[in-house]
Design brief:
7 helices; globular; alpha/beta; single chain; Spore Coat Polysaccharide Biosynthesis Protein SpsA, Chain A; 4-stranded mixed β-sheet
Length: 212
């Protein structure tokens, strides 16, 4: 597989379905999606639906893998347990993160892979679009200015990092650890024609989503 995307889920049933559909609408193949519920009843219901079965089948026909599973016990901690599990189970050469209340455009995988595939970079970071604020976030390697949504990482390199912790902010802890790792190679990918392909839909009290 070229790339693995990790999608922890808890609640937000309609947003979760929207997120899964945006994965299945990617314009390239060779991906796997590890969608794991944190003991999430709504994900279990969706997994049994005909719509879900059709998405899984369609992905398989195109050489992709859409895997949907559910933990029996809730671990909490912003999906930290699921993220650690998905990192270890990933089959893709590169690894992407996805929040189930956000959206990715159809060229998201293609866009992020373009900055790292065939290079010696360990991770590459991008800008995202903050929809509630109606502006692009100019990502920087400092807290509050970058997170999971902005990065693509070589899976083998990612596995060298300490596992995610329970506390909020574990995404930046990961990025800080990667940037400080001895010999790490990384860069920001940007050019005059670059358009963010990861859309952050919710920001605390600034949510404007009309779906659950």
């Amino acid at each position: 597989m070229r790339v693995t995307i990790s999608l922890p889920c808890y609640g937000r049933p309609q947003r979760t379905i929207r997120a899964i559909e945006s994965i299945c609408n990617q314009n390239i193949n060779g991906w796997e999606a590890l969608v794991v519920g944190d003991a999430c009843w709504s994900l279990s219901s969706f997994a049994e639906s005909e719509h879900c079965k059709e998405l899984v089948s369609h992905a398989e026909l195109n050489g992709n893998k859409l895997s949907i599973s559910n933990l029996t016990d809730n671990k909490g901690g912003c999906g930290y347990y699921i993220i650690n599990q998905n990192i270890q189970n990933a089959k893709g050469e590169y690894f992407l993160f996805f929040g189930n209340d956000d959206v990715i455009l159809p060229n998201h995988f293609e866009n992020y892979l373009a900055g790292i595939e065939g290079t010696d970079y360990d991770f590459v970071y991008y800008n995202t679009y903050l929809e509630p604020l109606k502006k692009e976030r100019n990502s920087e390697l400092r807290s509050g200015m970058i997170g999971h949504s902005e990065i693509i990482v070589k899976t083998d390199f990612l596995r060298k990092m300490p596992p995610h912790g329970f506390d909020y902010g574990h995404d930046f802890v990961l990025i800080r650890n990667m940037a400080s790792y001895d010999g790490a190679k990384y860069r920001k990918f940007a050019n005059s024609k670059h358009i963010p392909t990861y859309i952050v839909k919710g920001l605390g009290d600034l949510r404007h989503d009309t779906i659950d």
